[in-house]
């Protein structure tokens, strides 16, 4: 059983596992964000891929890993072991990265992207369950907030390295070149290796206190509240298309490649700064309130993106977008730990991440079709794609206001929900 000591709301009170997992995510995001934020530009500018197919690549990348997220979470519950499944997932993503260097077609890029997402599918649920296993519920918001902050700090550094590389090689360019992209891919291999090493050395499994037989069929214990929560999350995610479309919108509004990276750098700094305080706030005032606020902010932001006309509009909106991410994502994971029993957390996080992944394919395809069209279907332009996302976010926010959980983790307080 975990014992609280000292100031339970202080980051320094978090256990070694949270720090190790956070460092792992930090290094992997340094590697990933160097590459993935400019990948849509590589596809569009260098390979000449249409936005519909970019949406397809991004959507399938998440959806292909969805069943693995459920299985790996369930399997970690069955084994009562989280760490080595997470190591396998991080390792697969790291091993796939070098193949982007030799990718010369959208099919090859899609294959590498999908392999990377399979790695994420294997690691995500066991990793999140291990974070939740490592702290009492009264500090779960802080733990996930800190983990998201570290993850996003890595993204910030990764974008900064990519920006420095572009400045060093070409200066302020309007369109990405293949030479720059492949140089950044090579640099990204170093933090990818350090990510796996950090997890292997730093983390340890936490024994689950309930009998192993209770974990054989954990899905039976997830409960009605969790199912309804996943339906609401699914509605929100159907309007949450890939951020690749925001990057393409920024380019359409006249922002250069360097400008886009500066924009993403600003986004991640704000995301990292907000995540831990928002998680700690959810420990005190309730997770639903923080998530609902974040979703309504998202709806307003997407309406703003739909009506944006200048680069300044995009910069301002993207800065606020970072605050939304900081409020919503870590808090949602903490909420799940409150409404499901500990032996079922791997399965619950697997289902949650599968909902995100499954929703990403139709969300990105719809956004691509609304934007540009496909075949005889004429696109309506970027505004339609973002208005659609705003509408579903608003509906999901109302449903979250109406949702009432019927199970609260035994170690959580009434304010946790």
Summarize the structure.
The protein has 417 residues and is mainly α. Helix content is 73%, strand content 1%. Helix 7 (140-169) runs antiparallel to helix 13 (311-339).
Q: How would you describe this structure to a colleague?
A:
- With 417 residues, the protein is mainly alpha-helical.
- The protein has a single domain, classed as Growth Hormone, Chain: A.
- Helices cover 73% and strands 1% of the residues.
- The protein has 15 helices and two strands.
- It has helices at residues 16-36, 39-46, 51-63, 66-79, 83-96, 106-133, 140-169, 178-202, 224-238, 244-252, 257-285, 287-307, 311-339, 345-372, 382-402; strands spanning 373-374, 377-378.
- It has a two-stranded antiparallel ribbon with strand order 1-2.
């Amino acid at each position: 059983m975990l014992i609280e000591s000292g100031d339970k709301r202080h980051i320094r009170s978090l256990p070694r596992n949270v720090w190790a997992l956070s460092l792992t995510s930090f290094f992997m995001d340094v590697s990933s964000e160097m590459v993935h934020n400019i990948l849509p530009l590589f596809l569009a500018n260098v390979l000449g891929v249409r936005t519909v197919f970019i949406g397809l690549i991004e959507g399938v990348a998440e959806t292909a890993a969805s069943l693995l997220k459920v299985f790996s979470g369930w399997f970690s519950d069955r084994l009562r072991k989280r760490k080595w499944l997470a190591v396998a997932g991080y390792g697969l993503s790291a091993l796939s990265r070098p193949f982007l260097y030799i990718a010369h077609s959208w099919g090859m890029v899609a294959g590498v992207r999908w392999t990377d997402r399979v790695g994420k599918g294997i690691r995500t649920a066991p990793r999140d369950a291990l974070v939740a296993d490592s702290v009492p519920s009264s500090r779960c918001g802080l733990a996930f907030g800190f983990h998201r902050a570290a993850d996003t700090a890595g993204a910030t550094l990764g974008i900064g390295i990519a920006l420095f590389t572009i400045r060093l090689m070409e200066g302020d360019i309007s369109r990405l070149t293949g030479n720059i992209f492949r140089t950044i891919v090579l640099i990204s291999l170093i933090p990818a290796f350090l990510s796996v090493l950090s997890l292997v050395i730093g983390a340890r499994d936490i024994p689950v206190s309930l009998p192993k037989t209770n974990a054989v069929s954990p899905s039976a214990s997830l409960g009605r509240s969790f199912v309804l929560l996943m339906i609401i999350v699914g509605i929100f995610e159907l309007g949450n298309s890939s951020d690749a479309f925001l990057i393409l919108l920024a380019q359409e509004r006249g922002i250069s490649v360097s400008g886009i990276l500066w924009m993403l750098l600003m986004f991640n700094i704000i995301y990292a700064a907000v995540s831990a305080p928002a998680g700690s706030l959810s420990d005190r005032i309730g997770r639903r309130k923080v998530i609902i606020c974040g979703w309504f902010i998202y709806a307003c932001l997407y309406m703003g993106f739909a009506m944006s006309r200048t680069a300044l509009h995009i910069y301002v909106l993207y800065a606020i977008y970072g605050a939304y991410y900081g409020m919503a994502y870590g808090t949602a994971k903490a909420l799940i730990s409150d409404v499901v029993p500990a032996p079922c957390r791997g399965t619950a996080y697997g289902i949650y991440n599968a909902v995100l992944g499954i929703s990403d394919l139709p969300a990105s395809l719809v956004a691509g079709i609304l934007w540009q069209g496909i075949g005889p279907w004429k696109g309506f332009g970027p505004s339609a794609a973002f208005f659609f996302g705003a509408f579903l976010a608003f509906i999901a926010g109302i449903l979250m206001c109406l949702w009432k959980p019927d199970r609260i983790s035994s170690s959580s307080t009434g304010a946790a929900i």
